Model the fold of this input.
Amino acid sequence: MTAVTFTETGPGRRGDSFLSVQDLHVSFSTEDGVVKAVDGLSFEVEKGTTLGIVGESGSGKSVTNLAILGLHNSEHAEIGGEIWFEDQELVGASRGTLERLRGNRIAMIFQDPLTALSPFHTIGRQIGEVYRKHKGTSKREARDRAIEMLERVGIPNAKVRVDDYPHHFSGGMRQRVMIAMALVCDPALVIADEPTTALDVTVQAQILDLLKDLQDQMGTSIILITHDLGVVAQTAHNVLVMYAGRAVERGTVREVLGTPRHPYTWGLLSSVPRLGSSVDVPLKPVRGTPPSLLNPPPGCRFHPRCDYRNLVGPDLCSTEQPELSPERGHGDACYLTLQQKQEIHTQLMEGR
Amino acid sequence: MQPLLELKGLTKYFPVTGGFIFKRQVGNVHAVDGVDLKVGEGETVGLVGESGCGKSTLGRLAARLYEPTFGKVLYRGQDISTASRRELKPIRPEIQMIFQDPYSSLNPRQTVGAIISGPMEINGINPPGGHEKRVRELLETVGLNPEHYNRFPHEFSGGQRQRIGIARALALNPKLIIADEPVSALDVSIQAQVINLLQELQRDLGIAFLFIAHDLAVVRHFSQRVAVMYLGKVVEVGDRESIYLRPRHPYTHALLSAVPEATVEDEPRQRIRLAGDVPSPINPPTGCRFRTRCWKAQERCAEEAPPLIQLAGNREGHLTACHFPEAPTTSGEDVVLDPALA
Done:
């Protein structure tokens, strides 16, 4: 593990992005062997923007974000690489440092608000607790702040409902409470892990709009983890597509969804039906299943499921791991030439 | 022509009990409340709605896993809602179900062979060549390796398990399959594989489907006709094109506008944001059930429940239950009711 460094500009730190993850590795030892959940992941988040991290289950998207918050159990998880947040290195930072950051500068919104909230305490107390701990205010001030936050996230009659317990709220309202709790200390970064997956579409739309609204007002940066490209299209500025612990494509929403370059991104996009797509054409799924991370395939991790590796030439895909290139802007980890990618994508889009 | 399955005024209330020591019934969950729906032979009917709208209960009623409180389930004209075990026996094999969760719907102690041949044993069906041959055929039909006959469910991934569930449903050559959220527990890349498989089966074997899902795009892709449910009632039903391009019920409009689409649009779509969540089905609103979240609601909506009728200008079979229907288009003015967004 890397030692704690407090230098202003560390070796891996670049530009003015305020969260920078460099070459992150997270692995877990299990009975069956070592699971490399995240393997050499780098990305950056700029101030006031939303980064959508897309991937299927087991792609390492949640593991990455738990690493940012330092929530992995150090007995089981081995973390390597660097995470720079506001001039601090988080990998290997002390417990005290992380505790001062968590809930204060970095907050998290979990997928299932019912299990993330304590059933024994009123929501006012749960929201206020974060505020009291970090700002050192009195109980009364914390309660007033909780009411203010509840009003802000659109809970009607907040003065009364602040004394209710989580089970008094419906699913959508509970997720609003979670958002209020995450934003109570005006964090610089909010990590939302599948915040709307448990919700119905009409409620999901409300919550996504609310997050966008609050971001505009408070200038918070958001990392939005989801498996739904539609959610990303609606809320994020930048997208990172993950597969089996590695990033396969990165760019702005317009770049990645409009002109995707990686075969896996094509697969994701063509396997979901759209409201406007033709109904007579069968969907084009990605064949096969995601690999086991105990023993990931050598080379490009997607190559056993890829339909285009014959175009690349002998064995390159199955022996050498492609890196994201170019390093900045719209990048992808695939050996196909840019022209090939454009041609294949145009072909795929025909008839849809 | 007689429909394969016909639901008439189908209603299911679940009792709610309360009190200490002595349980008394204190109310009812109005899970399904007066639903009429037809499924023709070889037709796929999609049923969409948000959680708690009663779509799964409706599916289970249609398969006679529940007995309805009121109303009838007619299968080829025969009322099966009150039929006895003996009367049901010849009908059971023809109606099969595919469940949502591929993990809990397969017995972990049985091999794949036992799971798939179970329905044949129960119904005393002996296919030519024996059970094992038929199971191997079925495994091949759903895209699994027939050699996996002796494996256990835990050796398979979620998508493969769902295929086992599909093979089990096909074992008795059913005429109607009720698929209750068959793909929502699967990853997107696997979802498409299963949807394509179901579609192939539907085309090749001519099985009618009642396809229950909350994903509007998936339902559109799979179904010829679509019914939209809200709090136990069908609020709009019609052919696919009518529902998705010319919806009339405000709730259908709201649902469609809320679907997140994975495209970068230059023109923003119509934005309808409802306030709050679905009310409790224990004490549903009077009159039109959607009125508490509807932007067009007036006094009349609270007083009388709108009937499910064909509105002027709508296609044959496109029925809407609304006193003040919307224009038949999917673009229109934005409606934002949520106080936090206004």
In short: The two ends of chain B are 51 Å apart (CA to CA).
